[in-house]
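Notebook entry, structure prediction.
Reason for the run: the old model in the group folder had no record of what sequence produced it. Starting over properly, with the input documented here first.
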Amino acid sequence: MSRLPLLPLLLAALVALVFWQWRETRSSMLSDSANAKTLWPGLSPSQSRRVSLSHGARTWQLERSSRGSWELSASKKPHDEQSASVQGLHEAVEEVLTTLAWAEVQRRLRSPGPSDLRRFGLSPPQLQLRVWAGSKDLRLDIGRSDAEGSGLYLRFADAPEVLVTQVELRRACERLSRALP
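New structure, fully documented this time:
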């Protein structure tokens, strides 16, 4: 008779264990799928060492200095000069990298034709962004905003698939191009 009161406790413990296992499995699956939706999973802006931005006929190369600030590769300014424009440039590059780190793929458009690429602003691309972070090299062709104005057409350079992500990435790239000489 003394074993009978233990049975409900054991059953409750078993249910709690099964629920906990289910929740852990579900949360790891959700985090994996969230990473799969991220444009560049694992990107940390602090890992980035070089950035290139092309807008129209102009291309700018930027490098992270030994002090951590962003500078034009061709710049001959002394390293100890910290003007407002240098600080603005640094903040603009960091904004692009931070936006790129959290940008998620909203839609995938498989095998678009040449007329679609022109309509999306990807043939030729309106902006081109290249980021070197660690041993990785990301090259993005950036096009127009979608019809609603909340999405942005882009693709990894020379990839057949077009992605739609948040329009904030384009806005950050445009702010960076305005901060450049």
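Summary: The longest strand covers residues 136-145.
The old model has been moved to the deprecated folder.
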